[in-house]
Amino acid sequence: MRLSHFFTYYRTLGGVQSILKRHHTSDAKRGHEPGFVFAFESDDFDEPDITGLGFGGGHSIHSMRAKFANHSRRFTNSVAVCHNMWGLQFLADLMPAKRRVGLLHSDWTGLRPHLETQRGLLDGVLCVSNALVDLVSGCLPDLAKANRVQLIPYPIDGLAAMPERPPLAKRTVVIGWVGRMQTEQKRVERLPALVKALESAGIDFRFELLGDGPRQPWLEQQLSSGRTIFHGRKSGDDYASVLRGWDFITSVSDYEGLPISMLEAFSAGVLPLCPAIGSGGDEYSAKLGDEFVWDAFDFGQAAAKLKSILAKPESALGQARAEARALTGCHSEAGYFRTFDEFVQRIADEPRAAAERLTKRQFYFSDRLPFGLMTRLWPSGCTRRNE
After folding, report:
1. Is residue 134's pLDDT more than 90?
2. Is it the case that residue 60 has pLDDT exceeding 70?
3. CA 70 – CA 311 distance, rounded (Å)
4. pLDDT for 93 beyond 90
5. Which residues of 280-289 are buried (b: 16+ CB within 10 A; e: fewer)?
6. 72-98: buried (b, 16+ CB within 10 Å) or exposed (e) per residue?
7. pLDDT beyond 80 at 356
8. Are 205 and 228 in contact (CB under 8 A)?
């Protein structure tokens, strides 16, 4: 079938982007006719199936709609796969797709009202964690009752074998963090407080970071060079090599869906130190034991729980590592695409849940305001729909 993927960015570092790249590599091989449209990317891709609309913070919803309308043919007779359902509230009537399917990768502040404004716009939703399935089902009950909200296990490139580790007793514990070094969502300004709490607890540890971002220079000033290693961005074997050296992986994010980096670490037998933020990461970590989840953002409790874990017999830690690796068993690329294809085909075969033709967007003065200004001063104005 024709698949039209729609999202904000493609070139940036992130979990959604990694999934989109898998689709770009695999969709045609699986017999689909794929296309990709990215709102905030410039239209300078070498690949003919990728289109950038060049939106920016200075654009208004009105000007975005005008530009999007010039590319609406890319959705004709397709199943539109709307990643995180961005922009549907003001663009869906310009998207002449046979069906619109949401693929929800993330949790974020304001997700619930965002989902509630999607009513009547979607024919089905795939979610990367059970927590998101529950949230979507509550916000879009008509889809849930029709069995059109489903879990899809994220694919990872797991390690072929779990590395051998020397016993934790009487050696430096290696704690890792992965992501883009930024304030939004990742809240990396919290990391120094976490490190300080671990130091105050008398734990012998080294802290290692994978990734880069605008807050890296600040973090390099705040974190002791004798205890911290900045690996920068890594991929492939270089990325896996770093993971093999870790004992634990942690996070200080405000929100997550189901972090791919955590699953990749689990495949290497890395254990979690996970803040309870209502994400899929909480759910997976809790399956290993309550001691692997700490109250967000009680860094003293995080340190105390780590000390408790380190006091366990090595045999118990080895069992926990094996269980962490086993949790990634369903997260293969083949399994992900099998679930995706079966769900999308079913939605295409069943009657529409969303309206075939949406009424043209009514006039809102706010549609003439710069989008960047709207997101800061009046975020709910970005998701207004016809009343």
Report:
1. yes
2. yes
3. 62
4. yes
5. bbbbbbeebb
6. bebbeebbbbbbbbbbbbbbbbbbebb
7. no
8. no
- pLDDT of 23: 98
pLDDT digits (tens, 9 = 90+) for 164-209: 999 998 899 999 999 999 999 999 999 999 999 999 999 999 999 9
Give the residues across from 230 on adjacent strands.
209
**Contacting residues for 244 by C-beta, under 8 A, at least 6 apart:** 159, 163, 268
Q: What is the pLDDT of residue 380?
A: 84
pLDDT classification of 61: cutoffs 50, 70, 90: very high
Give pLDDT, residue 387: 64
Dihedral of the alpha carbons of 78, 84, 87, 93, in degrees to the nearest 10: 30
User: pLDDT tens, 291-305?
Assistant: 999 999 999 999 999
State the residue for tokens 């010039």. 70
SS (H, E, C) the chain: CEEEEEECCCCCCCHHHHHHHHHHHHCCCCCCEEEEEECCCCCCCCCCCEEECCCCCCCEHHHHHHHHHCCHHHHCCCEEEEECCCCHHHHHHHCCCCEEEEEECCCCCCHHHHHHCCCCCCCEEEECCHHHHHHHHHHCHHHHHCCCEEECCCCCCCCCCCCCCCCCCCCCEEEEEECCCCCCCCCHHHHHHHHHHHHHCCCCEEEEEECCCCCHHHHHHHCCCCCEEEEECCCHHHHHHHHHCCCEEECCCCCCCCCHHHHHHHHCCCEEEEEECCCHHHHHHHCCCHHHEEECCCHHHHHHHHHHHHCCCHHHHHHHHHHHHHCCCCCCHHHHHHHHHHHHHHHHHCCCCCCCCCCCCCCCHHHHCEHHHHHHHCHHHHHCCCC
Residues 6+ apart with CB under 8 A from 164: none
Q: What is the pLDDT of residue 157?
A: 87
